[in-house]
Each structure stands twice: as C-alpha cells, then as structure tokens.
Specification:
Helices cover 13% and strands 47% of the residues. The chain has helices at residues 9-16, 22-40, 46-70, and strands at residues 73-82, 88-98, 112-113, 121-126, 129-136, 144-150, 156-164, 172-176, 182-185, 191-196, 209-213, 222-232, 235-243, 248-256, 263-269, 277-283, 289-299, 304-306, 310-314, 320-323, 332-340, 343-350, 356-364, 367-374, 382-389, 393-400. A hairpin with a 5-residue loop joins strand 22 and strand 23 (356-364). Helix 2 (22-40) packs antiparallel against helix 3.
C-alpha cells in the first residue's frame, strides 16, 4: 500500500532551524515514501528487506547530491603563473557556490577555510575570513566576490574564471584596484585575464582583485588591450583597442617615469561608436630609460576606467628636454635636461590663443639637470612651451595646467 507523505518547508525551518531547497525536499519525500513501502510490505523476506533498505539509502544519497549540484550556481577562480615560454602552470584556486540554503556569513561545515600555501595563495574573503570554498545565498544585485592574493613574485600571472551560473540577465566584471581596469567576465563561458606584478607595492596588494556583479558603477567601456613600443630613436608609439564605449567622451594618455606618479600628456576624443575601435598615439618626447604609460577612458559623467600599465625602456642616449611633472602645479614648470649640450636656452610660454604668457632664459651647464621656471598664475588649460637654443635648436612641448 502506498501512502502520501507531505512536508512543509516552512514548518521544518521554523521548528528545527533548518533550511531546505525544493530539490532537497523532493529527496526527503522520495526517501520517506520508499521506507514507508518497505515497512508496510511484510511479504518480503528479512534479507530482501535489508537489501531494499540499503538501496533506498544509496539512492537517497545520490539524489541528494544531484539536487545540491543542480540547485546551485558555481564560480571557480584559478591562478596561474606565465612561464618564460608563455606556457602556464596552475598555482591555486578557489570556488564560490550560490544557493539560498546557504548563509552569507562564514560557517564551519558549510564553508571551507583556506590553508596558506608556501608560495602564492589565492582565496575568497568573506567577513574577514579567508576561504577556499565559500557558500552564500543566490546571486543578487551588486554582489561582490573579494579575493585575497598573497606571496606573489615580480612576474606575469594569469587568472582564469570558470562559472556555471544559473542566474540569467546578470553581468560580471573583474576590478583591478592597481590598474583601475574593469574586465568583463562571462557567466556562461571561461574568461582569461593576464596581469603583471612588479616592484610597485600596489601591484602586490592582497586585495588587488574583486568580481563585481551587476554593479551600477561599471563603465560601458572595455579595453581589449594596450601596447607600446619604441619606433625610432626618439619616439614611442601607443596603441589600444576598446569595445562598448557608448558614453566615453575622450581618452587621456598618462605617463610616468617611476610607474607610480602619472601625469596626463595628451587627450584624444572618442571615435564614433562601433563594435571594436583602435586608437594610436605617438609620444615624441619620451624620457631616456623607463617610460610607463596607461590610458584612461573618461565618460560623460567624468568617471574614469584605466588600462593596465605598459612600459617601454628607451635604448641609447638621447638629447632631450621634457616637462616633469606634467600637469604642472602652482606657478612653477619643471624641466628635465638629458644629455643636452651646454648653453643658454630661451623658454617662451604661449597660451591657446597664441598669446605669449612668459619668456625666460635658462643657462644649462651640460649633461643632465633639473631646471624650473616661474610663470605666474596660470589658468587651467593647455599651453605650448617653445624652446630655442644654440645651433638652431628648436623644440615645442605641451604644458598642461
């Protein structure tokens, strides 16, 4: 005889303090029905009844775990190092499960704590606790996965994301707090993101990365790549590609000599929007040695998204004059003379209207030096600094105030 067995999820949760999803309740109902049938069917021999009960038990275990897998979303994040031959080696990984039967706070038995590795350690952080496996409620608007990355070396790394998300209509981005870059992360396919750890402490920060779901602060902009290379004895060419730049009004090229302090050296208006856009710009005044660049996309609300930082080391000794820092602050313009011949140099500062703002002469003793000129109170804007010297030397530099 078959008997109908019903369970009420609310009553169980209230009385026992337990949480069950729909699939789990179906498993419990199936088990109770099978056990009820076995106990009521007395015509079975005792040995047969034991076999039947054992089969019921294992069937229940299988159905329970199948229900667990089918009723939850999974987001796996893996860390790799990039070897000298461009091959990769996996270093560590973590995983996040989403299901309403889970708690948001770390719970022993539900979440798995992260054990530190000797080398690189990649974990999820929840309420200050480092986890290997984090179980949390179903993905909601503006959810965030915070990562903790420890013991990195100065080298190239790679992140790979393998989601199996049940939610539809949600988007995800990887936020790099060091570069400021936002990279789209697919929720139905794998995503690969390369990144560099260098001598800058910010690139080694444990909280450098996080995953943002459906965040309102995400810009409608995605940089595909950025490249820089020396194209002559005195020029560096930059190239970057973007998608989804619907509200971007312009791009700023930023340069740094130390990889930390960046100044804007040029602005490029955005091109008419299409699927993929490519931009090019040439730096005619790079410094000798290291030149660090990054591109910032500026939208109509002045929100900014950054590319990763790229570096070009200029080879050979160049004779040049450059403004540093730029933009300038206050009423002082700093000038770096590198391998310039000894002599007098005349500096004429001209505004956008073609009016001369200031004229000064500098005596340079030769080789490398740092000079300053005072120009009075300048309004914000773009200026030209025209420099003339011996042997018909002429140079024009952009000054940003």
């Amino acid at each position: 005889m078959w008997r109908t067995v019903t369970l009420k999820q609310v009553e169980i949760s209230q009385k026992k303090g337990l949480k069950f999803n729909t699939c789990e309740i179906h498993c419990y109902i199936a088990l109770l029905v099978l056990l009820n049938y076995a106990m009521q069917n007395f015509t079975l021999p005792f040995t047969h009844k034991k076999v039947f009960l054992a089969a019921c038990f294992f069937l229940f275990i299988f159905m329970f775990f199948a229900a667990q897998v089918s009723a939850q979303s999974l987001f796996i994040s893996r860390l790799y190092k990039v070897n000298a031959d461009n091959s990769t080696s996996q270093l560590d990984y973590n995983q996040v499960y989403f299901n309403d039967s889970y708690s948001m706070s770390p719970i022993i038995g539900e979440d798995a704590p992260k054990l530190a590795n000797i080398n690189e350690t990649f974990s999820v952080v929840e309420s200050g606790t480092s986890l290997f496996s984090d179980r949390r409620p179903t993905l909601r608007q503006n959810d965030t996965i915070y990562f903790k990355l420890l013991r990195t070396l100065q080298q190239q790394y790679q992140l790979r994301f393998f989601p199996n998300m049940l939610s539809v209509g949600k988007t995800a981005f990887l936020k790099d707090n060091y570069t400021g870059n936002l990279t789209p992360v697919a929720l139905s396919d794998s995503t690969v993101v390369n990144f560099l750890v260098n001598s800058n402490a910010a690139s080694q920060a444990a909280d450098r990365f996080k995953i943002l779901f459906n965040t309102e602060t995400v810009l409608p902009l995605s940089f595909i790549d950025v490249r820089a290379k020396q194209t002559s004895a005195s020029t560096i060419k930059l190239q970057w590609s973007v998608i989804s730049q619907s509200s971007i009004k312009e791009y700023a090229i930023e340069r740094s000599l130390d990889g930390r302090s960046f100044g804007k050296i040029a602005f490029i208006p955005s091109l008419p929007n299409k699927a993929v856009l490519q931009y090019n710009w040439t730096d005619d005044d790079p410094a000798e040695g290291n030149n660090y660049y990054r591109i910032s996309g500026i939208d109509n609300n002045n929100k900014i998204s950054y590319t990763p930082i790229v570096n070009v080391t200029m080879e050979g000794s160049m004779a040049t004059i450059m403004i540093y820092p730029n933009p300038v602050s206050g009423n002082v313009i700093g000038l770096k003379f590198e391998n310039m011949p000894k002599g007098s140099y005349v500096m004429r500062l001209i505004n956008n209207s073609g009016q001369e703002v200031s004229t000064q002469e500098i005596d340079h003793n030769g080789n490398n030096s740092y000079q300053t000129i005072r120009v009075g109170d300048l309004s914000k804007g773009l200026y030209n600094l025209e420099i003339t010297g011996n042997d018909n030397f002429k140079k024009s530099l952009k000054v940003i105030k």
